[in-house]
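Let's practice the habit of predicting before peeking. Look at the sequence and jot down your guess about where helices and strands might fall. Then scroll down.
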Amino acid sequence: MAGDTPSRKRRLRLPGRPEAYQGGSGPAEGVHDAPSAAHSAPLPTPGARDDGRGPTASLEAADAPRTGPGPDPDQPAPGTPDDTRKGGVLKRVANPARVQLDRIKLDSARIEAVRRGVRRGGQGAKAGLGYLVDRVIEIAPRVPVRDLDTLRRQFPGLGPEQLADKLVAGAAHASATVGAGIGAAAMLPVPPAMPAELAAEITGVAAVELKLIAELHEVYGQRPPGTLAQRSTAYLTSWAEERGIDPTKPTTVNAALGGQLKRELRQQITKRLVRNLPNLTPFLVGAAVGAVMNRRDTRKLAAHIRKDLRARQIPWHALGHQPALEQPENPKDIDF
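Done guessing? Here is the structure:
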């Protein structure tokens, strides 16, 4: 084309020098405003083979340290709580506030797990106590009770106090036998069987003491009115509250037949369970402990009942003839 420099007169471009401008002796307009291509991509090495894919990218600019005046966007600003400088190098450290917050969250999760476990254990214990209460209520009408005439025939020549002493001694011996038997069964500790052993001891001792309470009421002339089921409920209340029933006050019997009976029985059974825990001591130690503790508890209960009944005692000669007690259809075997 006219005006172009012939190829034989063109100057050879040296590496590092800007490109020669074509189309005139001076640089084209806007050349000084645009960056040179030599700074954006390296020149090809002499003798290197061109594969037609263009110049390779350079990573030097990415790896080179930042020399500009502005802050590095990849690094946090100096002075933040998560960073510290040592020897001119920025190092990241743990945030104490965040670590404390994470620890609090972890502790809260553990506490919540323990709380759920305790809640489930409490529900299981409540269900177990409910089962024991139902068992004791079911046993109460099956307890055979001797009326006053039968007792006087079996123990002739004894007054009310001597007859009551005989009954208490027999009941204490029977409850001690139950405790010794459970303690002997727990000679080798088997954790899954312990709740069943405690339940068997509670129901056995409760049957013995219910029989004692009913016969003490007969001896002191304080038989509760009503049917077999009503008298059994009254004796259950006497056992739960550890006091005698006053048959002259209808409110007392009505309260015994109310809904609070199960709550009182649950409280009494809980106390007995706590006191009977040493009975499960292995190697026959629990047998001796169970015998002693059950004998003591039965005597203590009898003392409370007799104290209340003495205050309202009716002499035998003033009782007159009393009808025989109704016996259960399927009596529980209690030998004392």
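How did you do? The two ends are 138 Å apart (CA to CA).
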